[in-house]
Design goal:
The protein is an all-alpha fold. Helix content is about 50%, strand content about 0%. Strands 1-2-3 form a three-stranded antiparallel β-sheet. Strand 2 and strand 3 form a beta hairpin. Helix 3 packs parallel to helix 17, helix 11 crosses helix 17 and helix 12 packs across helix 15. The N and C termini lie far apart (about 75 Å). The structure holds coenzyme A. The site of coenzyme A has 16 residues, from helix 15 and helix 16. Coenzyme A binds next to helix 15 and helix 16.
């Protein structure tokens, strides 16, 4: 068993070595302090836009680097665990032994959410997609009246340091003002110690509540969809071990637990991706962390974001069932379809997360023979796509290409892959929301108006007559 752990660590360190071999320059891009207003080239969908500064995570897409709070993600996968990594993201430093002890105790306490599960079980879980149920469950986590809901905590105009955002002319140019247009002192948002036992819906405790709560809810969704009762969390197991235990009802073997732990670390944070941005946008309006995380879950559910891993395994199963990889790929190309699990908005080289998950998926295939045919298809597909599009279009496997195979080997059904992604990413969402709120400025980009001007209002009775006629072919 110990040798398995060493094997896994070595595979991760090998992946790190391989990644380092491809780094042309270690000069970090986009790592300087911003002088507002900033000039940058922006594409549609805010591509290239710099919206804030952050000390939480760094992604270098051209070099294939991913860093959390200064630590290389390869090292965190090799030596750390999800508890430590989520602490690192939230608090900014690795914990001491006693800090980690206390943090773990809180995480364990928050695993037990019977009232939330009871509420969730009353809903139409079978008829909803798992991500929608997860979002609902996240809102149920906040079912009590929280500190933020109380009259005492409600923000009033007298608390504002400045004016309402919409009270200024809309289309002004940025002046470089660093403070929020509608701003409150940060301390005003956090429940003062001893005022009430109620949760303040923003504190670090709320973040931990969400980190543990999303794991329990996800495991319960998986079981309820399979007509099984949720499993009571274990206080003894690690975050990853308990997650697998709550999903399967069986205490996981050390290899499964470690691999799940690595997968959780790898998905914990990733720059200003769509779901992180969605959480931050909601939080920036002075909403709260539960509702912000709910928005992150909604954004993550899309096929272009977290939903891709499910599409990957679907494609791999389809190829394995009755096809050969080459002809399947040619057909996709002919139909101009994108290959799920390849390409990335930021990485224009191998995604470092795929570098770790690929070897781990292969490692698992050694003992879980059922996954061998799928693994063979994945490896062949990777070779073909990289040979065709690697140099030409900088298309390489992304995190989703191998994560599905890893989850599959762990016995997790395909439609639970994206909720698992959320179980991990909640650490990044909450950490970034917290960081942003310390210097909050409501998100407010603008669009250019390309519609008409000076149209004359037409009473309804006259409109039909004026409807443009369809041209005859
Ligand atoms: N398969 C085949 N070709 C792909 C591709 C893929 N997965 N991803 C991108 N390309 C091609 C595009 O067709 C385009 O070719 P063109 O220049 O000839 O038109 C070129 O590469 C650039 O594509 P574009 O969509 O502009 O890249 P992007 O950076 O905006 O998009 C993704 C990134 C992730 C949305 C895109 O790669 C994709 O849809 N991948 C599949 C879904 C997926 O795995 N998502 C998870 C991401 S973690």
């Amino acid at each position: 068993m110990e040798s398995d752990q060493k094997d896994i660590t070595n595979l991760i360190l090998e992946a790190k070595k391989e990644a380092r071999r491809h780094i042309v320059s270690v000069e970090p891009e986009f790592s300087q302090k911003v002088k507002w207003p900033v000039t940058c080239t922006v594409g549609p969908g805010l591509e290239g836009a710099i919206a804030c500064e952050s000390a939480i995570g760094y992604v270098n897409g051209s070099q294939g680097c991913l860093i959390y709070r200064g630590y290389d993600v390869f090292d965190l996968c090799a030596y750390s665990n999800y508890e430590e990594v989520s602490y690192l993201l939230l608090f900014g430093h690795l914990p001491t032994e006693s800090q980690l002890d206390e943090y773990k105790k809180k995480l364990v306490k928050f695993r037990f959410i019977p009232n939330t599960l009871r509420r969730l079980m009353g809903g139409p879980i079978d008829e909803m997609m798992p991500m929608a149920v997860l979002r609902l469950g996240t809102e149920f986590l906040r079912y009590r009246l929280t500190w933020r809901d109380s009259e005492f905590a409600r923000l009033g105009p007298e608390d504002g340091l400045a004016a309402d955002e919409d009270s200024i002319p809309m289309e002004t140019m940025p002046t470089g003002e660093e403070h929020a247009i509608y701003e409150f002192p940060y301390e005003r948002l956090v429940r003062p110690a001893g005022v009430s036992k109620r949760d303040d819906a923003l504190s670090m405790d709320s973040c931990m509540h969400l980190i543990s709560g999303l794991a329990t809810i996800t495991a319960a969704i998986m079981r309820l969809r399979d007509d099984k009762m949720p499993v009571e969390p274990s206080s003894e197991l690690s975050h990853a071990g308990n997650l697998l235990y709550m999903m399967t009802g069986v205490k996981p073997d050390p290899v499964s637990e470690r691999i799940m732990d690595v997968a959780l670390i790898l998905h914990a944070d990733h720059g200003m991706n769509a779901s992180t941005f969605a959480s931050m946008v909601v939080a920036s309006t002075m909403s709260d962390i539960y509702l912000s995380v709910g928005s992150g879950i909604a954004a993550l559910s899309g096929a272009l974001h977290g939903g891709a891993n499910e599409l990957v395994i679907k494609a791999i199963k389809e190829i394995a069932a009755d096809d050969n990889v080459e002809s399947w790929y040619e057909r996709q190309k002919a139909r101009k379809r994108k290959i799920p699990g390849f390409g990335h908005r930021v990485y224009k080289t191998y995604d470092p997360r795929a570098r770790v998950l690929g070897p781990l998926a292969k490692y698992m295939a050694k003992t879980r023979k059922g996954t061998v045919p799928l693994m063979a298809v994945a490896e062949r597909l990777e070779k073909i796509v990289v040979a065709d599009l690697g140099k030409k279009k900088k298309i390489f496997p992304n995190v989703d290409f191998y994560s599905g195979l890893v989850y599959n080997a762990l016995g997790i059904p395909d439609d639970m892959f994206t909720p698992l992604f959320a179980v991990s990413r909640v650490a990044g969402w909450t950490a970034r929301v917290h960081e942003y709120l310390k210097k909050n400025r409501i998100f407010r980009p603008r669009s250019t108006y390309i519609g008409a001007f000076e149209k004359e209002y037409m009473p309804i009775e006259r409109r039909a007559k004026k409807m443009p006629r369809k041209k005859k072919k």
